Amino acid sequence: MNKNDTFEIYIDDLGQDGEGIGHIDGEAVFVKDALPGDTAIVKIIKAKKKYAYGRLMEVLSPSVYRTEAKCANARACGGCTLMHMDYQSQLKFKRDRIINCMTRIGGQDKELIEKMLGEVQGVKEPFRFRNKMQFPIGKDKDGNPVIGFYAGRTHHIIPEEDCITGHPVNKHIVKAVKDYIVKFNVSTYDEETLQGLMRHVITRIGFATGEVMVCFVINGESLPHSNELVEMLKSAINVMPGDETSTGELTLSSVMISINRENTNRILGTKSKCIYGRPYIDDYIEDIRFSISAESFYQVNPEMTVQLYSKAREFAELSGNETVWDMYCGIGTISLFISKMAKKVYGVEIVPQAIENARNNAAQNGIENAEFFVGKAEEVVPDIYAGNRPGSRADVVIVDPPRKGCDEKLLETICLMNPEKLVYVSCDPATLARDVKYLTERGFILKKMAGFDQFCHTGHVESIALLERVSNRKADAKVHIDVDLEDYYRIKDAQGKDGK
Ligand code: SAH
After folding, report:
1. How many CA atoms lie within 13 A of 285 on its CB side?
2. Which of 121, 168, 181, 465 has its CA 20 to 30 A from that of 434?
3. pLDDT for 352-361, tens place per residue?
4. Are strands 288-293 and 280-285 parallel, antiparallel or unpaired?
5. To test the ligand 1 pocket, which listed residue (284, 296, 297) has its Cβ within 8 A of the most ligand atoms?
6. Which pLDDT does position 240 carry in this prediction?
C-alpha cells in the first residue's frame, strides 16, 4: 500500500476511537467515518509498514449500523466520531469494547465478562445531554473571529455555535462573545505567533439548578470592558425561552477568567479570577448540593452520572459500619453520595480547588463523616498507610481515576490496606482491564461489572467493576496469587454465598 492508492474495501471491525477497520492483503487499514459492514472507496493517506490510514471517499454499500448524523459538522469536527452510527449500535459497540479489553488486556474469561456486564446503559435521548462545553477562539483566514470546535486531530477551528450534544443556551453565549470581540476589537489568540488575548470560552450549567458559569481562558491578566461583557452574557442567557430542555430557567451565576499564558495544549491556566457572581456554580445529584469551581472535574452527563454513582453505591453494598476510601474524588461527589451509608469516608484528589469544593460540599449538606486530602493519591495514601494514621485501613475502596488509570503505587497500597471490596469506576476500559489484571493477580476477584454511556457519539465508554478480596486471604501486593476463577465460584456456590 502506498500513499494516494485508492481501494474498494469492506470494513469488518471498529477501532477504539470509533474508526472503521478493513483489510488489504492482510494489512489493517484504519478509516475514520467508516463502519463495519460498509463497502467503501478508500484513499490511503498514510502508509506504515504493517498498517495504513485511509480516507473514506465514498460509501458504495452502507452498513446496517449507518444513520444520518444529526450534525452537519459531524465529519469535520473531532468531537463526535460515531454520530453516523445508530445509537443502539453505538451501545453495542461500547459493550464489545469493554469485553475485548477485559479479555485481551485484563486476561479475564470472556463468558464470565459477557454474563456480568449486561447491556451498556444509554441515555433516553442522546442529544442536549452535556452540561459542559469548551469552545476554542481564533481567527478565520480573513481575520474575523471564529468560535467553534477543533477539527479532528488538528487545531483548525470549525465555526459552530450550537453543538447539539450541549445545552441550547450555548449558541446565545457564543454569539454574545463573538459580538463582544467585534464590538470592542478584542484580539484572539494565535497559536503560531502566541499573540492575542482570547483562547477559549467554557460553559458549564448546573442542569438541576439552572446556574450557568462562563469561563474565559485568556492569554493576559484581564478582559477589557468586562462589565459590558457580563451584561451581554446576561441578555444572551435571558433570550433562552427555557423550554428546549426540562431544566427550567437559567441564571448567570459565575463569570470567570482563567489565565493561561503558556504555549500549551492544556486549556485551563493555573490562576483564575471571578469577574462576576461567585467563583463556582451549584448543582444537585439526588438531594446533595454540590458547588463546582472552574478548575474542578464534574461529570458531563447528568442523566448517566446518577446511574453510575447509584451503581457504585449498589456495588459497595454498605451497611453503615464501613470505612470507605474514595480515590480521585474530585469535588467529593461519590464520597458524599455514599456518606450516609458509611461510618467514615476519606477522599483524595490532586486539584486543590476541587478539595476546597469537597470540604464545602460536605459542610453545606451537613455531612460530618467525610474527610478530604489534597495531593496525588499515589503519594497521600501510601504515606497514610506507612504512618498507620487514621485512614490506613478501609473496608471498601472506590477508585475513579482519569483515563490513564491508577498509579501502580496506589494499587499496591490498596492491596496492603486489604479492603473487602474495591469498586473501580473507569472512563477507559483498557486501563481498567490492566488494573483489574494487577488486582486479580493479588488476591482480588472480579465479581460484577456494568457499562454506562457517558459520552454519547464518541468511542469512549464508562464502566464500573466490583472486585472482592478472596475470602480469608490477606492480599499482599508483593506476592503473586493465582486465583482460579472456576474453583472460586464452585466453592462460593457450594456455600450458597454467591448472591448476585
Ligand atoms: N470521582 C470524581 C472525579 C473523577 S475524575 C467524580 O466523579 O466527579 C478523576 C479525578 O482525578 C479528577 O478530579 C482529577 O483531577 C483527579 N486526579 C488526576 N490525577 C490524580 C492523582 N494522581 N491523584 C489524585 N487525583 C487525581
Report:
1. 25
2. 121
3. 999 999 999 9
4. antiparallel
5. 297
6. 55
Say if ligand 1 is within 6 A of residue 350 CB. yes
pTM: 0.91
Separation of alpha carbons 256 and 234, rounded Å: 14
Q: Residue of the nearest CA to atom 19 in ligand 1?
A: 350
Nearest to 361 by CA among 290, 256, 268, 421: 290
Ligand 1 mutation target, pool 267, 290, 328, 348, most atoms within 8 A of CB: 328
Q: How far apart are the first and last CA of the chain?
A: 51
Known catalytic residue at 427: yes
Output the CA angle 195-197-201, nearest 5 degrees: 130
383 CA to centre of ligand 1 in angstroms: 18
Ligand 1: distance of its center to the CA of 5 in Å?
45
Residue 182 one-letter amino acid: V
Residues 6+ apart with CB under 8 A from 471: none
Q: Which of 337, 314, 320, 329 is nearest to 121 (CA)?
A: 314
- Rounded CA gap, 421 and 317, in Å? 9
Task: State which residues of the chain have pLDDT below 70.
Answer: 239-248, 471-500
Candidates 449, 473, 448; CA nearest to 461 is 449
Please name the amino acid found at residue 131: N
- Distance from C-alpha of 214 to C-alpha of 258, rounded to nearest angstrom: 11
For ligand 1, atom 10: residue with the closest CA: 328
The finding on whether 268 has its CB within 6 A of some atom of ligand 1 is no
User: How far, in Å, are 192, 194, 260, 270 from residue 264 at the CA level?
Assistant: 12, 10, 9, 12
**According to the model, what pLDDT value does residue 161 have?**
87
212, 205 in Cβ contact below 8 A? yes
